[in-house]
Amino acid sequence: YxxxxxxxxxxxxxxxxxxxxxxRLHAFDTLYVADLDGIEGRxxxxxxxxxVAAAWAGREVWIDDGTGEPxxxxxxxxxxxxxxxxxxxxxxxxxxxETGILSLDFRGETFLGPRSLLETPVLWxxxxxxxxxxxxxxxxxxxxxxxxxxxxxxxPDREVYAAGGVRDxxxxxxxxxxxxxxxxxxxxxxxxxIKTGDLLRSRR
Length: 204
Hints:
- The protein is α/β, with parallel strands linked by helices.
- The protein has eight helices and eight strands, in the order αβααββββαβαβαβαα.
């Protein structure tokens, strides 16, 4: 990945500055942070995670770094760890996810992780991300068919969040209509395809 260039933080690609840019744009409840070095086994950047959490003070930060280990306490910032299915082992149990969020990761039609995890909703925690990796940053639209299927299997006591492909406010409306609890979105915010009005409407 090249350094991010965004009007939300002109002149810098510093993650903490970008987090502050999101806060200026809209009163988001939650920030999702993917530490790619950590996910790929090259070592999580705990100092970066701590700086971003401090910039998001008073709200919730979801951190996906392949380890499941949160950085040092950041005072009033609530940190929740995301565990990706691609790093889960066969035989994962309910207790492995009960304090965090499970990301069900897909590349194309391929599920990344133990098949038993995908096929056994009883293993899923209260909050689930459905991550379609090929659509992240691609502007291809969310994977509505897959999301609808997983939302149906998750049941009413779980929240399912969409990740990958969101292009505009119309996509936000479609995701709300199929029962998604929320959506991870970045590119459409940096590019201006999703406006403040879209975000305010989607919160209703």
